[in-house]
Design brief:
It is globular, with a radius of gyration of 24 Å. The chain is built from 17 helices and 29 strands. Helix 1 packs antiparallel against helix 2 (about 20-30), helix 2 (about 20-30) packs across helix 3 (about 55-70) and helix 3 (about 55-70) packs across helix 4. It is about 35% helix and about 25% strand. It folds into 3 domains: about 5-10 and about 45-180, Rossmann fold; about 220-415, ANL, N-terminal domain (Rossmann fold, 3-Layer(aba) Sandwich), CATH 3.40.50; about 430-520, ANL, C-terminal domain (GMP Synthetase, Chain A, domain 3, 2-Layer Sandwich).
């Protein structure tokens, strides 16, 4: 297709959407800097890094969207299950820029659970990796579910380009509204029950100015988080909001190679990724460690779970700060973030960043210390869970999202998380204990990798994981943990300390599974 014709189509399609949609900003990038790479990745067949420009990306979206509409997929929900790669990203963005709700799912889930989640969202079609498709098709309860392979993207693109060139392009005239649903993400929310949060188009653009501040001085962003999780989707859309080039990670085993190529200034990382890097670089000199991470990295943005103190110390020796952000699926990502100060990413010690200007965050029913449940209102807050009014009413009250997290806000609008409301331990004496506070103190001991404080027979107990150790080290660690609380109030003392021989169960973002940990 000639450039002039393609440009006209981009202008036409880009005009058919509300301003507060990801489609608007993506198509704006395609017109303002069409030849800039939108995505890069390592092509295994070619043995080198390849890329797609913003113009090429938008052309592919229009072609694929035209085929999707021709197949009758408009106003449908499409399940998306596969490993990170350009095909996955292209299908995801095509849905986001269309009247198609996308449901990204973890490819690591067992197949009955994948079917259960697709059924829960009344999904009748899905695009999946070839291996997953074969397994799903073998299940007796997959009837009525249309399965397409992600490997079929290339022939679909060829078909779509042909249709566009012949003038068959109903997709380009379709209008995308900011209030319409864009995607669904499964989450445990503020309770243990799995639910599908419905994310609107406007939710995806609410923190554009935050991304502009974080990314304006960077030419590339390394996407390492799983794209079926709201944090990974946040990085994916954030780069498109400001026109940054994003590198699609091939997985944990390629991280060092990717850092050396992308040379990021800041990057988002969960504790599991940080632990891998620490293990790979432990023992390296500060200069060598810094260079192996690209030479320019000054800060890691983390979320979901606290980073162990030993990891913080190691990264600090490489002159790399670790900052914590806070967000939820129900807020489509961040609520508070680290900010740039003097060329470095900064957050007050102990805080999870400064609250976004686009949100109103308050502390509900604060106690004498100013601690209470964090509640949120604003454009990034979702409307509810799919076909689950009961669970929606539990979390959305009078326009406010009740997070279930306990915290406080300081005079500079920085947010501090103390713990989870549902995790508060009420002792027989009537004292309320926030276990996360004690866990942070215990995790300050260098050998401690993971820690869980819980109630046992009316008293406090702890389970910790510190790797392999001899009996002498075990006795010393127990003594150090007991000493932390020896001179404090008696109700804060630990009556039982158990050293786990194996790591405690965690979610994909590194959060402890508290109930599961007790049975390990």
């Amino acid at each position: 297709m000639e450039n002039s014709t393609l440009t006209a189509l981009i202008e036409r399609a880009g005009a058919n959407c509300s301003e507060e949609t990801l489609k608007h900003y993506l198509f704006l990038n395609g017109l303002q800097h069409p030849e800039k790479p939108a995505y890069e990745w390592f092509d295994e067949e070619q043995g080198q890094v390849t890329h797609v420009t913003y113009r090429e990306l938008i052309s592919d979206i229009m072609a694929l969207g035209t085929v999707f509409y021709r197949r009758g997929w408009k106003e449908q929900t499409l399940g998306l299950i596969g490993r990170t790669g350009y095909r996955w990203v292209l299908v995801f963005l095509t849905c986001i820029c269309s009247d198609i709700v996308v449901l990204p799912l973890d490819p690591g889930l067992d197949t009955p659970e994948l079917i259960r989640r697709l059924r829960h969202c009344r999904t009748e079609l899905a695009m999946v990796d070839d291996g997953i498709r074969c397994v799903l098709e073998a299940l007796p309860d997959h009837d009525g579910l249309e399965l397409c392979s992600l490997s079929s993207v290339e022939p679909l693109l060829k078909e779509g380009r042909s249709l566009l060139e012949s003038g068959v392009c109903p997709w380009t005239d379709d209008f995308v509204l900011d209030k319409q649903p864009a995607l669904m993400i499964f989450t445990s929310g503020t309770g243990g029950k799995m639910k599908a949060a419905v994310i609107r188009q406007e939710n995806l653009t609410a923190e554009r100015l935050v991304w502009k501040g974080l990314e304006a001085d960077r030419s590339k962003c390394l996407l390492t988080l799983p794209l079926f999780h709201i944090a990974g989707i946040g990085d994916l859309r954030g780069t498109l909001l400001v026109g940054t080039t994003a590198y699609l990670s091939g997985g944990l085993k390629y991280l060092l190679r990717e850092y050396a190529y992308v040379r990021p200034v800041t990057t988002f990382m969960v504790p599991a990724q940080a632990e891998l890097i620490c293990n790979l670089l432990r023992g390296r000199s500060p200069e060598e460690g810094k260079q192996m991470l690209g030479g320019q990295l000054v800060a890691l943005r983390t979320s979901g779970a606290p980073m162990p103190e030993n990891m913080r110390s190691l990264f600090a020796s490489w002159d790399i700060d670790i900052t914590s952000d806070y967000g939820m699926t129900e807020t489509c990502g961040p609520v508070s973030v680290s900010v740039m100060k003097n060329g470095r990413l900064y957050s007050k010690p102990g805080s999870v960043g400064r609250i976004l200007d686009c949100l109103d965050v308050r502390i509900d029913a604060p106690d004498a210390n100013g601690h209470g449940e964090i509640i949120i209102s604003g454009r990034s807050v979702f409307n509810g869970y799919f076909e689950d009014p009961e669970e929606t009413e539990k979390i959305l009250k009078d326009g406010w999202l009740h997070t279930g997290d306990v915290g406080y806000i300081d005079e500079d609008h920085y947010l501090f998380i103390v713990g989870r409301k549902k995790n508060v331990i009420v002792l027989p004496s009537g004292e309320n204990i926030i276990p996360e506070e004690l866990e942070r103190e215990i995790s300050g001991i260098p050998e401690i990798k993971e820690c869980l404080v819980y109630e046992k027979d009316g008293c406090l107990a702890a389970k910790v994981y510190a790797g392999e150790m001899d009996s002498e080290t075990e006795a010393r660690l127990k003594s150090e943990i007991e000493a932390l609380f020896r001179f404090g109030p008696s109700y804060r003392r630990l009556r039982s300390i158990e050293l786990s021989p194996i790591p405690l169960p965690k979610t994909t973002t590194g959060k402890l599974k508290r109930e599961a940990s007790l049975s390990v």
